[in-house]
Amino acid sequence: MSTGTGLGPAPTAPRPDPGSPDRPGRGPGRRTLASSDARAGLALISPTLVIVLAMVIVPIIWTLLLAFQRLRLLNLRSSGLFGEFTLNNFDNVFAAPTFWGALATTLAYSVLGTAGAIGLGLVAALALRRPFRGRGLVRAVMLLPYVAPIVAATFAWSTMLNPQFGVANHWGTRLLGWDEPIAFLSQRSSDISLFGLSIGVPTALLTVIAFEAWRSFPFAFLFLTARLQAVPATLEEAATVDGATLTQRFRYVVLPQLLPTIAVLAVLRFIWTFNNFDDIYLLTGGGAGTEVVAVSVFNALTARGDIGGAAAQALVLAAILAALIGLYLWRFAPREERS
Amino acid sequence: MATATGNWTRDTVETRVFGVLRIVTIVLLLIITIFPFYYMVLLSLRPLDRVLQDPGALWVPPSEVSLDSYGSVVAPPSAGGQGFLIFMANSALVAFGTVALTLLVALPGAYAVSRLQFFGRRQISVLFLAVYLFPPILLAVPLFVFFTRIGLRGTLVGLLLVYISQVVAVSIYMLRNYFDTVPVSLEEAAAIDGCSRLGVMWRISLPLAMPAIIANALFIFMIAWNEFLFALLFLIEERDRWTVSLGLSQLAGSIEIPTTVLMAGSVIVTVPIIVVFFASERLLTEGLTAGAEKG
What we know:
The complex is a heterodimer.
Chain A (H helix, E strand, L loop, with lengths): L3 H4 L21 H39 L20 H8 L1 H31 L7 H8 L1 H4 L2 H11 L6 H9 L14 E5 L2 E5 L1 H27 L3 H9 L4 H30 L2 H6 L9 H10 L4 H26 L7
Antiparallel strand pairs in A: 1-2
Helix pairs in contact in A: 2-14, 3-14, 4-9, 4-11, 9-11, 10-11, 11-14, 13-14
Chain B lengths: L1 H44 L2 H6 L14 H7 L9 H32 L5 H13 L2 H15 L5 H26 L2 H9 L4 H12 L1 H17 L2 H7 L8 H9 L6 H31 L6
Helix pairs in contact in B: 1-13, 3-13, 4-7, 4-10, 4-12, 5-7, 6-11, 7-10, 7-11, 8-9, 10-13, 12-13
């Protein structure tokens, strides 16, 4: 063994001396393997890097450039990559009352949609916790709203809620005593009398929030179910022996274990709801007080052909999102995430 | 002893109440998740005039069932239909293309991130996470401009490229989680037996990761089939290249097409997803939530 290096042909790469006494597998021999690993690693990841770079990173940087230029769809082919830089787009964005309205709508939609989705998901996860016949099938069915194509789901909803021949208004006027059909998706606000008080309610906004909760609760349900399965049964058994009731066991044993998962879910759902375009565009087209910033960016881009303005709005949206997430992580991040 | 009895009764009450509540909740949840899909199928099977006469019907009598809506939505525009067959072919092309190309790119990448120490490995994971959380509408603007200028807007190839870039990060994340669970010792054994790095990947790691790869492929398929925003941005002017999602959304805006026909279209869009989902439900949920139970 100690003569190994002397026998074979001279190695081109620096080889370890196998005979050296301090060789518990961590000697210089690992360096060649490590460097070839490093090269192979970079080679294997590079196609991904190229695609992400070309289709994500460069476009993001480009958005920065576009946001500071007066660029319209009409003169797109004639203009260069670097035009005249100006702050006009941002002036227009911040000066427009519609932008602040859209931002407020986006925030309300994101917060309430996230809360609704996680609340419903938690209820579903707890209700389906104990095994019963057919639970697997019920669990799978619970995921349908999340996996179904968004276009089909929104179309089914808007037909159901249709004031003329929708099933919701048909039964609402007959069974629930509604005076007249409710235009859920095209009515900005309606008055609801509650204990003699008349309260204005943003009908369309609440409807799209309800849709968001319906569409996204399976995601929360899935992750909370996975987390619930990992709660050790012994803890609850011990609490039961000590006389804790069902609600007490939930409040003091189960819920604390779910909180970190709920926190992560809240961040993820908030981000995705904040960025959401499809649902609102397909349900209301951004009308009736439901225009969120993503829809407003789309309209600026396609309806008005205002590329610079669309880019500026999108950037402001991303910046606000980043600020909110940063604030959350800085303020509430409980402990370091294990990777 | 008195307190113990008191707790016992409270416990009994709670157990009973929540036992009933639990069943009620499960039934309600089942209704709200299934009903929109049931309603979709229901309307697609009823003739339009019957729907307008009796919009509240929750059941379609067998004598009333008609498949005319499906015929009308599938027939080519020249025959007075909506041409959904073309849309489906486009969607299938884009979805299968996205699956194949993404796996081709993501498999080596995931293997590298899971197994190999290389410069910037940790940063890459963070970068990919950031990509996944970025607003897609932010990318929409420059990509729209870029594709318009190089003439890729209105082509399925452009859409395919965008889809790959959108799913490759989450694909690598899912596959990496799986590679992490495959014992390294198996690969080391093969390496000692003289297998090269690529040989190890091909003969050991890939076959072992097959369940995760299939789950991942189905996941990507669903994303690509369902995608709407980029299809809308890039393809809206080219009716021949519309995907099913885009086609359905565009036709839903027109007044001339009966709702029942569009409901048949919705069913056609949804059925492939439901089939794929139920075929892969277990694989998918495990792949998505892998590691989530660690807290």
